[in-house]
What does this fold into?
Amino acid sequence: QVQLVESGGGLVQAGGSLRLSCAASGRTFSSDNVGWFRQAPGKEREFVAHITWNGGATYYGDSVKGRFTISRDNAKNTVYLQMNSLRPEDTAVYYCAIGGIYSATIPTTYGNWGQGTQVTVSS
It folds into this structure.
């Protein structure tokens, strides 16, 4: 059974950068589609980014296009989310998940989730 662990979150000033990592154990996920979502208090879970591991296609939510980049490192069994030009509205818990073949943007189409990592952006 694959286990996902997010890391790299923390406190950053507006305009700064963070790189989140999603590491898998138990098996490789080099052939799996992987997505990033985020959820702020009182808000619904929001799509951030998605990568198709066999095809190399990437997708981004409108609010992060041009600022965030999703990538992979198969040798390390890890997916990354590079976040630049961070804004206070990016503050949320960020989750990675495996799935999304049916739809990259809908959380319920993913079947395996990590526990999340907190990102806080100060003004």
Q: What stands out?
A: The chain has a mean pLDDT of 93. The CA atoms of residues 16 and 89 lie 13 Å apart. The longest strand covers residues 18-25.
